[in-house]
Amino acid sequence: MVDFKVVLSDPKSGRSYKIDAAGAVAGAFVGKRIGEAIDGNALGLAGYTVEITGGTDKTGIPARRDLPGSGRRRLLLSESTGFHPTYDGERRRKSVRGGEISQDFVQVNAIVKTYGEKSLQDYFGPKEAAE
């Protein structure tokens, strides 16, 4: 079955939370596109709505919202998702994935769009202090 690491970012607090999604929870993401909203109940977050913002596959290749499907492609990129040039005008051919979430993804990034009654701190607990 499919296993994902979902990195859920909270724009209000600036914190992010990691959720290990397996089975039916991960199945809620398969077939969705970057930019689509998902009900938070699939992640165990009652009343929340989350939006998919990106993801990577097992080799770290990023997904791009503007590409159809979920396959890999090698594109000639200027500054955008998947490539950040070191000098003006630089372009480079890089591998990127389409914007549809598939079983090949390992990490899915998402942000909270609608908040529920309980805070995310109540679901995930406080973060440990850095040593």
UniProtKB/TrEMBL annotation:
The name this protein goes by in its record: Small ribosomal subunit protein eS6
Gene Ontology MF annotations: structural constituent of ribosome
Top-level taxon in the UniProt lineage: Archaea
Pfam family membership, one: Ribosomal_S6e
A single BP term in Gene Ontology: translation
Spans annotated as Disordered: 78-99
Encoding gene per record: rps6e
Keyword terms, alphabetized: Ribonucleoprotein, Ribosomal protein
Upper taxonomic lineage: Archaea, Methanobacteriati, Methanobacteriota, Stenosarchaea group, Methanomicrobia
Similarity-based family: Belongs to the eukaryotic ribosomal protein eS6 family.
Organism in which the protein naturally occurs: Methanoculleus taiwanensis
GO CC annotations on file: ribonucleoprotein complex; ribosome
